[in-house]
Specification:
The protein is of the alpha/beta class and 326 residues long. It has 12 helices and 13 strands.
Length: 326
C-alpha cells in the first residue's frame, strides 16, 4: 500500500520534486585542500540527495509525502527507492532510467562537523517536464510543494508555476547556489537559502544577521512572499510579509552538518502546512536542524516528530533556554 493510500485524507500532503543520491561519506580530521591527501578515519554509505532528504525529513515529521525523482536501474537506484519505501513515502512517480547512473555524492566531514561535497547527478539531470506532468494530480492535491536545485532549472521553474497555479504553497531551497530568474522567483512562496546562497542570489556579502537581513529584503523584492536565511549555529533570519525576526540557534554538539539545510526546509514545510506562521514554523525548523547535526549521515540523521518533541522538552527544561529575538 502506498503512503497516499494509507495516510488518510486529513494528513498534511507534501510533494517533493527533486534529487536522490547515494552519499559516500569519509570522516577525516580535516577537509583536504586542492592537491592534498588526508587519511580518513571512517567510511559510510547512506541514502541522500537534497530532494530525497527533504522527503524523508517531512515524512518522519508526520506528513504524507509523495516523491518525484529519477534514479538509474543500478544497485544504488534500488537502494534509494527501498529507503524511501521504508519511510512510507509514495514512490509511484519515481522513474528508473536505464541510460544513466543513479546520482552519487562524495562527502568529506571533518572533526568539527563541517563538510565538503561533490555531486555526480546522473539520472537526476534527466528529470524532465514530461515527468512533472505525470505528477500533476499529486501536485494539485498537495498542501506544500518542496523544490531544490539538484535537478534541471527549467524543471524547477515549470513545477513551481504548476503548483502556484494549483494553489499549493511553494518552498524553494536554492541549493546548490544558482542564478534564479524572475519567473521562478515570482512562483515561490518561501525561499530558504543559506548564507552563501543568499549572498550569491542577492549579489552582496552575507556574513552575519544584519547582512542577512539586507540580502533577504532584496530577495523578497524579487518575488518570494517570505525569505528565510539559515545561519548555521546562529539560527535563522526570517524576512516575511508579516513578520521579520532573527531566531537564535540552538546550542548542540555538532557531529555532521550534512542534511541540516534539508531538515530545516522540510520542517518549515511541515509547520507552514499545519497553518503555523512563518516565524513559528522557522523556530520549529531550527530545532529539527539542530537535532540533525548531532548525528552522522544524511537520511540516517533526520529526526522523527517524537524525537523533536523530546528534544524541545529537554531544551525548555534547561536553565539557559530563554531566547533573545531581534
Amino acid at each position: 500500500m502506498s503512503a497516499s493510500e494509507s495516510a488518510g485524507a486529513d494528513r498534511l500532503r507534501i510533494v517533493v520534486v527533486g534529487s536522490s543520491n547515494t552519499d559516500l561519506v569519509v570522516r577525516a580530521p580535516a577537509i583536504p585542500a586542492p592537491g592534498e591527501t588526508v587519511l580518513g578515519t571512517s567510511f559510510m554509505t547512506a541514502a541522500g540527495g537534497k530532494g530525497a532528504n527533504q522527503a524523508v525529513a517531512a515524512a518522519r515529521l508526520g506528513a504524507s509525502v509523495t516523491f518525484v525523482g529519477r534514479v538509474g536501474t543500478d544497485n544504488f537506484g534500488d537502494a534509494a527507492v527501498q529507503a524511501l519505501e521504508r519511510e512510507m513515502i509514495d514512490v509511484r512517480l519515481v522513474e528508473r532510467d536505464a541510460e544513466a547512473a543513479s546520482g552519487v555524492a562524495f562527502i568529506v566531514v571533518n572533526d568539527a562537523g563541517e563538510n565538503a561535497i561533490a555531486v555526480a547527478p546522473g539520472a537526476n539531470a534527466r528529470l524532465d517536464e514530461r515527468q512533472v506532468d505525470r505528477a500533476a494530480d499529486a501536485i494539485r492535491e498537495a498542501d506544500v510543494l518542496l523544490l531544490q536545485l539538484e535537478i534541471p532549472l527549467n524543471v524547477v521553474r515549470y513545477t513551481a508555476c504548476m503548483a502556484r497555479d494549483a494553489g499549493a504553497r511553494v518552498i524553494l531551497n536554492p541549493a546548490p547556489a544558482s542564478p534564479l530568474d524572475s519567473e521562478l522567483l515570482a512562483a515561490v512562496d518561501v525561499l530558504t537559502p543559506n548564507q552563501g546562497e543568499a549572498a550569491m542570489l542577492a549579489g552582496r556579502p552575507v556574513g552575519g544577521v544584519e547582512e542577512a537581513r539586507v540580502a533577504a529584503r532584496a530577495l523578497r523584492a524579487a518575488g518570494p512572499t517570505d525569505v528565510v536565511v539559515t545561519l548555521g549555529e546562529n539560527g535563522a533570519l526570517v524576512e516575511g510579509a508579516e513578520e521579520q525576526t532573527h531566531l537564535p540557534g540552538v546550542r548542540v554538539q555538532s557531529v555532521d552538518s550534512t542534511a541540516a539545510g534539508d531538515a530545516f526546509s522540510a520542517a518549515l514545510a511541515v509547520g507552514l502546512g499545519r497553518g503555523e506562521s512563518v516565524v513559528y514554523a522557522a523556530r520549529y525548523a531550527t530545532r529539527v536542524a539542530a537535532l540533525t547535526v548531532t548525528r552522522a549521515g544524511a537520511q540516517p540523521s533526520l529526526p522523527t516528530a517524537e524525537e523533536v518533541e523530546a528534544f524541545e522538552r529537554l531544551e525548555a527544561e534547561a536553565p539557559d533556554s530563554d531566547e533573545q529575538e531581534g
